[in-house]
């Protein structure tokens, strides 16, 4: 493999039902940083059926080029044709870096494509930067929690290209869109020969999701095991209602069946960065903190003054949440009315 042939930062621009997924914009945002350090540009790879019109939106969020693979076989996500499409783009255009979102689709697609093009992939990265590895400059340094989150590992891929990484939604920042920006659009179709390896989709059943997503909330009132029961979460909901926020939780709460997994914050939950994050009865395990430490202001309420959550909190209240939370809600009600 001649590494010199590989140039440019590519991102997989995930779309579902011909609507771009926010991770596509977040990856372009990060891609721009990396491309600047490497003095190159960012190419979004858009795969689907009748998706060409989405190229302008990718341009507005910063893509310099958009490679469109458009084919009826790509209407709904299926592993085989999508892996063929992305692996073919990599073989044809030889990117130096290929970023994929760690969504359900990206987690399926990324590793399969990396195996096809015989390179490595670092999954679930939280930090990506360009730096030196073993004396060689301009390497992609990919950082992620390892060994169950007990350590942080930085991984490089010095001998093969592209350097591939998946990134969790919400970790990287998208850029402010520039209205009317245009990208160079390149249409490419490697050809699809459906065979018995292709899964046949008989019916698509959409998951009934709560309309609101904790990743969009400006204020989150998050509860942990210390809240004590599903019923006690009503106390947190009252506080969230007064502030116009949403309730989220730690994994211990999901494991106890008090809240559904779609409101779990942390390494195996969602990454959030609200303006205000209440951590109530949450100890502050590294896997939880990984999902909320970027919040603008963190207020922790815990009866244990040595709880690690106080290390990341801007404000800390030591005491019994059963007393503090209702008192806080009443005080805010009086203040805000
Ligand atoms: P605890 O650690 O039990 O803390 C409860 C806290 O409540 C304590 O600090 C206690 O002092 C306080 N408390 C109790 N009663 C009161 C009271 N009356 N008033 C005030 N304070 C009180 N965790 C996540 O949250 N998100 C993840 O995504 C996640 N992913 C993980 C991935 C892996 C691979 C592993 C190994 C673990 C993961 N965890 C995750 C689990 C994590 O390690 C912790 O076990 C979990 O975060 C603990 O949840 P907690 O803080 O609610 O509970």
From TrEMBL:
InterPro entries: DHS-like_NAD/FAD-binding_dom (IPR029035), ETF_a/b_N (IPR014730), ETF_a/FixB (IPR001308), ETF_alpha_N (IPR033947), ETF_asu_C (IPR014731), Rossmann-like_a/b/a_fold (IPR014729). Pfam families: ETF, ETF_alpha. Residues 9-207 form the Electron transfer flavoprotein alpha/beta-subunit N-terminal domain. Gene3D superfamilies: HUPs, TPP-binding domain. Belongs to the ETF alpha-subunit/FixB family. This is Electron transfer flavoprotein subunit alpha/FixB family protein. It comes from Maccoyibacter intestinihominis.
